[in-house]
């Protein structure tokens, strides 16, 4: 069940990544990011109320809040990079470096010990993500945004994975609230114009999708090693490529094709490990 939940999380984030990138080019990225976090908070709160927790301790909420600070930072810099047209730099850097940092934290700080097949899957997943996301084609514009986003991704995954299972989904709620508070000063400082109703609704839905992805990841991390959950959930950059191939009849490069094959092989190794 753990691997399936992780992959479902990746599907959510793949859709969010694709939709958020398009939306950030049509409206202010600060407003899109902030509205998205509000949508995520609303969905997380509704889900937490529907799934009663056995025992919510302050430490669980603190881990959730720290995770929210990470995800708020990640989404801000990811959307800023995407709004600048640096997708081929920001997406691979944030995905690959975020995975690497999370795996290092899991192994060095949390004592995770993946078995040989899982290590093989991790080793395949890193270059696969790099290839499928574009591999920094062209100039390194947006590299700083990608690196900052990756640090936020690692904090998001590791901190949320440390929340106790008895706390239910309240750590996700705490995280969404922390992300909203983190982004308030930036949103006010930029004084971005109000989004048209249709774009505002889309931003809320994108944020709700991201929160759903985090909920699925939290449930997955409670059922398997954090390192495995992180890597499987981080395969999300493959989804926009597949969707474009199937529904938009887009062409993929040889590098992206190799990345998709590597991601598929990594998924098998991590699932059976």
Report what the structure shows.
This protein is an all-alpha fold and 273 residues long. It has one domain. It is built from eleven helices and no strands. The chain has helices at residues 2-24, 29-50, 58-83, 87-108, 116-132, 143-161, 170-190, 197-221, 226-233, 238-247, 254-272. Helix 1 (2-24) packs antiparallel against helix 8 (197-221). The two termini are 13 Å apart.
Describe the structure using short key phrases:
273 residues; globular
Ordered list of secondary-structure elements with their pairings:
Layout: H1 2-24, H2 29-50, H3 58-83, H4 87-108, H5 116-132, H6 143-161, H7 170-190, H8 197-221, H9 226-233, H10 238-247, H11 254-272
Helical content class: over 70%
Measured on Cα atoms, how large is the radius of gyration? 17 Å
> What letter string, H or E per element, gives the SSE order?
HHHHHHHHHHH
- Largest β sheet strand count, sense and barrel closure: none
Number of helices: 11
Calculate the mean pLDDT score and round it: 84
Which structural category do the helix and sheet elements fall into? Answer: mainly alpha
Number of domains: 1
Percent strand: under 5%
Coarse shape = globular
The counted number of beta strands is 0
Low-confidence stretches: none
Terminus-to-terminus distance: 13 Å
